[in-house]
């Protein structure tokens, strides 16, 4: 399908075809999403003798973790748990009882990456009791560093099951899949679906990979899905959550909790979501890998654009590179037409007296009015902290990002009702640098 211009569709198909050929994958599908709409999808190779399309299922591996994280976040929002809760509060008796729910979500719990014993991805999964009985003590101190853990998400699946009184997948179906219309995202493969293959490294022959129910490990990598459903999930990650999750909680999940240890960070992890810097863009999403399958969902939240892809090969395809390249191709061939400017009647008159220049000490800032009484604080020099604020009451706003995330901006007025200064997390902003008539902490003696 294609709702893009013919040259754009051609460029996207060329990129997909190049990946399928150079990676030597039996089949490959991909799609591009903009503003929540799947604008283009394509397929290369063969599944059951035919070219795969946006409705062909592939196993999506660790993209399953993003669904698990949303289920946990819903429990938090309902007050059934807190991200700071130790595991023992909800699943007592394991060797990991002091690790928190938040640490498990962010892969900072220090829990081992894989199960003890045979590789879980290529062997039949067992029940929770069997898995719990084989748990080893954590490898690292909780919160010390990022250590990716499939096992940690199996643990979170058990938390969900106990608090919901249902299996992880039953909770997933009722709370996410059905409400969002993800009718082709399933626990086991449903036709039409691809078979998983390994491709010989030195010859053009393939070997079929085994498929097993992952049992208690399912929350870490069980699911199967399609380009159509992954596109809807990309829209969810981008902000179109319906009534499944609040916008504030989604923002919380997307915020990096930890980043790679490198000179310049290019990869981090929020609560169930990877955060990547690629080609000057920030992408949020997740990759997936299971024997015979690779997949990816990568969303540029700022541009409301996403790339999704899936392949039936154990190695070779690079989902991050392919998914983000599809986004870049769309942006290059069909850049957005800037929205028309128009007066905004939703800006309250009471906000207009606040806009304009403000100073924190000698540092200049500009306060801009946005729709519905929101404010945007921007430094006018290279140094300074920017943030957006939304109204929370009379003369109060809450910070939405950056240094002031969650902090309160308050207008302080004189007895006659006029504005004296702004108080932002104890920082005093005045209309002139170090205004002597404002209560500047420490006082001022005047310029000389």
UniProtKB/TrEMBL annotation:
Transmembrane segments: none annotated. InterPro entries: AmpC-like (IPR050491), Beta-lactam-related (IPR001466), Beta-lactam/transpept-like (IPR012338), DUF7586 (IPR056008). Residues 20-321 form the Beta-lactamase-related domain. One of its GO terms (molecular function) is hydrolase activity. Residues 347-431 form the DUF7586 domain. Pfam families: Beta-lactamase, DUF7586. It is an enzyme of class 3 (hydrolase). Its EC number is 3.-.-.-. Keywords: Hydrolase. This is Serine hydrolase domain-containing protein. It comes from Tenggerimyces flavus. The lineage of its organism: Bacteria, Bacillati, Actinomycetota, Actinomycetes, Propionibacteriales.
């Amino acid at each position: 399908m294609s709702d893009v211009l013919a040259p754009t569709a051609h460029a996207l198909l060329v990129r997909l075809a190049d990946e399928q050929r150079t990676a030597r994958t039996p089949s490959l599908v991909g799609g591009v999403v903009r503003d929540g709409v799947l604008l283009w999808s394509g397929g290369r190779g063969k599944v059951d003798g035919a070219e795969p399309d946006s409705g062909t299922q592939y196993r999506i591996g660790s993209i399953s973790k993003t669904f698990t994280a949303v289920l946990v976040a819903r429990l938090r929002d309902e007050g059934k748990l807190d991200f700071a809760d130790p595991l023992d509060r909800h699943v007592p008796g394991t060797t990991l009882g002091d690790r928190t729910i938040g640490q498990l979500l962010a892969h900072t719990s220090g829990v081992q990456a894989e199960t003890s014993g045979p590789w879980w991805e290529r062997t039949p999964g067992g029940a929770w009791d069997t898995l719990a009985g084989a748990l080893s003590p954590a490898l690292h101190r909780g919160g010390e560093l990022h250590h990716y853990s499939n096992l940690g998400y199996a643990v979170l699946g058990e938390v969900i099951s106990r608090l919901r009184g249902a299996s992880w997948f039953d909770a997933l179906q009722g709370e996410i899949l059905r409400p969002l219309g993800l009718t082709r995202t399933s626990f086991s493969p449903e036709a039409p679906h691809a078979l998983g293959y390994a491709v010989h490294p030195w010859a053009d022959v393939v070997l079929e990979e085994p498929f097993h129910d992952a049992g208690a490990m399912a929350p870490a990598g069980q699911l199967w899905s399609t380009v159509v459903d992954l596109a809807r999930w990309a829209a969810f990650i981008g902000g179109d959550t319906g009534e499944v999750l609040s916008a504030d909680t989604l923002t919380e999940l997307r915020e990096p909790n930890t980043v790679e240890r490198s000179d310049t960070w290019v990869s981090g992890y929020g609560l169930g979501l990877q955060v990547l810097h690629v080609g000057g863009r920030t992408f949020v999403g997740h990759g997936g890998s299971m024997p015979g399958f690779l997949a990816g969902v990568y969303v540029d939240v700022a541009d409301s654009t996403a790339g999704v892809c899936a392949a039936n090969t154990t190695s070779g395809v690079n989902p991050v590179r392919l998914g983000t390249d599809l986004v870049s191709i769309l942006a290059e061939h069909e850049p957005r037409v800037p929205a028309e400017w128009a007066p905004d009647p939703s800006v309250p008159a009471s906000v207009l007296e606040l806009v304009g220049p403000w100073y924190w000490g000698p540092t200049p800032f500009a306060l801009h009015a946005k729709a519905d009484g929101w404010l945007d604080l921007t430094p006018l020099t290279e140094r300074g902290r920017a943030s957006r604020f939304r109204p929370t009451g009379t003369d109060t706003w809450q910070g939405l990002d950056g240094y002031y995330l969650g902090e309160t901006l308050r207008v302080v007025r004189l007895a006659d009702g006029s504005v004296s200064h702004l108080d932002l997390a104890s920082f005093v902003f005045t209309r002139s640098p170090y205004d002597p008539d404002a209560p500047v902490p420490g006082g001022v003696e005047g310029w000389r």
